[in-house]
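so my prof wants the structure for this chain in the tokens format not the other one, which i didnt know existed until like an hour ago. anyway here's the sequence
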Amino acid sequence: MGESFKLEKRQSLRNNEYYTMQSIFDKLYGKSTEGFKFNNLMQYVTSRNNILLAYRNIKNNKGSTTCGTDKLDISFFKDMTTEKFVKRIQNKLANYTPKSVRRVEIPKPNGKTRPLGIPCIEDRIIQQCIKQILEPICEAKFYKHSYGFRPNRSTEHAIARSMHLMNNAHLHYVVDIDIKGFFDNVSHSKLKKQIWNLGIQDKNLISIIGKILKSEIQGIGIPNKGTPQGGIISPLLSNIALNELDWWISSQWETFKTNYKYSAKSHKYRAIKKGDLKEIWLVRYADDFKIFCRDYKTAFKIFRATKMWLKERLDLDISTEKSKVTNLRKNYTEYLGFKLMVKPKHNKYVCQSRMCNKAKKITINKLKNQIKEIQKHGNSREVLKLNSMILGMHNYYKCATKITYDFREINFLVTKTLEIRLKPWISNKPQFTETYKRLYGNYKGKIRTINGITMFPIYGCKTSNAMHLHRDICNYTKPGRNKIHQNLRGYKHLIDYLLRTANDDNTAELNDNRISLIAGQQGKCYVTGLDLEIGNMECHHKKQKCDGSTDEYKNLVWICGEAHKIVHCTKLDTIKNYLGLLPLDKQGMNRVNSLRKLVGNSVI
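here's what i got, hopefully its the right format
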């Protein structure tokens, strides 16, 4: 799984537990799996802890500083008392009328634009309150091979599933269906019926969702269909809209109900293969989905049936230019920035995957534009940003089997721009950080150092097998959460996070040493020895900069937020409270006291 995808998972679960909402989410998930009908969900939506959890989740989102039509962002609430804030949200939900949605046009690579709807910050918090309660109920009912906008699922899982069907199931025909303007054409009345059929039968809550769907869009008016991209609840509503399609396709083969109960699925499939049913398997990521088949006749038949079903059941049209049946032995099929086909190898066909041409062009343009930014500003922070971009691209595309060829080509095309524009700043004297050594230490190509920062090699991407989704991973069961915590061990996600969020106000030395140091500490808190978590980790100066210290490596240490409070705190009651939150042994206390002495505080 890509490291950037893992960034917020542990923090999200930690937030749930901190606000004691996890047990409620677990209960909703459990009841939903049993087919329970929920008719009093507003008690959970409007609960104090759910509202505070929504605020925390919104605050941690980088979009929280984006203003809506009322010109307000998350800072509007920062000085408001907790009780006043909770009461404000509860009162608004009691008689809900959303404010108008700000419309923004986001440029697309093809020159067109994609409309984005940005609700006001208060409406975003309310949508988050609703999403937190609906998600566990929906997760219990969603199809297992739907991967888009769902907890613990990513594009890598969708690619891994596709490659499995091509390699192991030998399904070499694929139906590509592109829904025309899906997010703009979802029927509101149909969507509310689908929500009801999932067991969400609280009329008050469905009424509020209806008002969200009908929110006035600035400059456009009140929509009569669609789930505007940009709303927090929109991705969940889109999955609800297409969940019916998932189960209909699945019922044609995978979950087809037979009168006889077979002891194993393989026995069932062997038996139904003798009848009129044809083998088909679905992989879906948001509105982008593929149906894998064994032959052209079956593929063409399901293509026509799906087109008809979408029109009759959901009133959705497909794009005739982008929708087709592909023979994977002869042509590539494009999916989520990759292109896949099967080629003969050792007397069998195996999947070969690469970056699609469009994705390659976008990647080249992004890197060239960042090189121009380095030339324009001439500072180390922009070089760190370039490194962050390269690492993110490698992490996303590394599951392609032929990715080394793609990045060699990208490197060749980008290097010319690099050498021309940044020639005055380029040095051939490397300054390897621990991060560089760990990620790219084995690469032997040309190394470039720009303004004291050694650039990550663009060509330095190795193929890594696409990871399948583990079926026992789940946010809403205790064993499922334990599995998530196990998978998150390690610290690559912390490095990726620091690279992406380098602070322009920091020195280049500090930004670079923070990354090297977190690798040196292996992602663990210096005081407790426990894994550091995004949102709860501080890079502490042992000797304070106000006392004349520097950003050098030996003056820095990574500690958790609670330990940082203890180091700087002078009030005994507060120190006692924070000590109660940390599992400190003798070594931990010694380290706390040594850090306290260095900042001028007394020993505890």
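also thought this was worth mentioning. The longest helix spans residues 357-377.
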